[in-house]
What does this fold into?
Amino acid sequence: MRLEIIKQIIHINSIEFACDAPDLFQLRLQDPATSIMEGLLDFNKHLLFVIVVIVLLVAWLLFATISNYDEFNTPNSQKFFHSNELEIVWTSLPALTLLSLASPSFNLLYSMDEVSTPEISVKVIGHQWFWSYEISDFDRVISCNGSDKTLKYTCYLLTGEEFYKKNNAGFFRLLETNKRLVLPSNTHLRLLVTSVDVLHSWTIPSFGVKIDACPGRLNQVNMFLKRVGIFFGQCSEICGVNHGFMPIVALVVSSNQFNFYVISKTF
Ligand code: CUA
It folds into this structure.
């Protein structure tokens, strides 16, 4: 059902269906739409492998010790109580493990801060309890001399009544908004995130983006969306009673479609 709706909205039938919203009893992370998220997923898998190895090793040590050296198996205590070699090994092994994890981790971390020349800046403003968006500088997208028009809109949670009135079957309760943030794919984007009241956090798991919206501060993050689709996220900073009711929905369309959208809205 959801797939059908997405297909209807994006007018694409040959699109590979990906997990861009929470699933029932979901265990894995959502599918990536940016190279950052791909990196995060790879690193997560790598870490998981290392963790499993460590857990097995420690569990084996623990059980071996317990079963070999209880008072029934070894009534006489061992003379051996100190070993320099062993201490060197069990200090350096964890240190080396951490070092081997540091390199990919820092690589990822700094690649998130990488600032490329963006084609569009999207202003994301957090409110208690909704998000608003402003997209300006269209001169770069469509050559139009001196356009000072700004695309502004506000996205509220789609409430239950609106939901059932319109019979939006297949839509997500508490995750849908009345309007969606429209973004172009295959375009370098810059998000400028701020807030007008308290701390919020703009998050979309598939984008690998989680950026705080601080009042009086402008946070910046770069994005390059690799595919079209509808992506869901939520505010991720406790911001008041309706913190759970300010979801984020991004509709990512091809850059051509985005240009038409902007033209139809602003000119
Ligand atoms: Cu806004 Cu939590």
About this structure: Strands lie at 120-127, 130-135, 151-155, 181-184, 188-195, 200-204, 209-213, 219-224, 229-234, 247-253. The first helix runs from residue 2 to 10. Residues 12-16 have pLDDT under 50 and may be disordered.
